[in-house]
Amino acid sequence: MTDDEFDAFLRYLAEEYVERRLPLARRSLRHHFEDEVRLKLDDLHEAHQALNYIHDAMPRDEDIYKTFTLDALTEIINKAEYGIRFQNRLADETGLMEVMDEHFTNLASGLRADHLPPVEAEMLSALGFPRVAAHLPGQVCSVRIFSQRRPSYTNEVPVSQQLRELADRLDAARLEHYAAARSEQTGQPPVEQRKRKWWTGLGKVVTGSAISIANMALGAGLIPFEVSPETRSWGALSSVTLGIGQVMEGVGAIRGE
């Protein structure tokens, strides 16, 4: 598929699946989800900062479970899990999940940085994700490579199913950490200590969820950044492809691959 063909494909999907749903979603989101958007993005920002510390600042031989309390780690997982669930609700509401189920691999494999809304970097920086904003072109390349390396799995298992399973897996991890934190003084067996790779994968999940939520909210007019009407639908489609691609990259590490 040439670049021109892909651009036409992207706009076709945006017009066919998303453009007509955004006005309907906008009304629903204003009534039900508007306050939640900012709360979830704030929570993801806090988790993002903690996970960046684990990834960047901690020496490789330092024990995560001695640096962070179990309560703190439980809260990080909690914020990531709720972010994924909220992302899924928004994607269903805006029609984007249907597109991801049918066309994720094709969209991810042809995605380019210039498909993202012009305000993408500025918006993500303002929301507390400057590092993500600074590396958008590299992240687009990473998602494109991932989609080309793992087409069989992403084609055989619907994206929506993978995201639901991820949320359930994080819920189980959260409950395990919570129970361990409550029983630290009772002599119960300690929590299974997850390796740094697991937390790195969770970092990708948090980053991807933030990208997806922010851009769906932007497309629905819930974030005060200017974007032209003609770019609302295809900009949201492109950015959600990037966001969910980042999440999917993190799934392998979380599953222990």
The largest sheet, given as strand count, sense and whether it forms a barrel, is: none
**Helical proportion?**
over 70%
The 3D shape can be described as globular
Distance between the termini: 31 Å
SSE topology string: HHHHHHHHHHHHH
Q: Could you characterize what this model shows?
A:
It is a single chain. With about 260 residues, the chain is mainly alpha-helical. It has 13 helices and no strands. The longest helix is centred in the last third of the chain and has 26 residues. The protein starts with a helix and ends with a helix.
What are the key terms here?
mainly alpha; 79% helix; 257 residues; single chain
Task: Provide the fold topology.
Elements: H1 3-18, H2 21-32, H3 34-57, H4 64-67, H5 70-94, H6 96-110, H7 120-126, H8 130-134, H9 136-149, H10 151-156, H11 159-182, H12 196-219, H13 229-254
How do you describe this structure in short?
With 257 residues, the protein is mainly α. It is built from 13 helices and no strands.
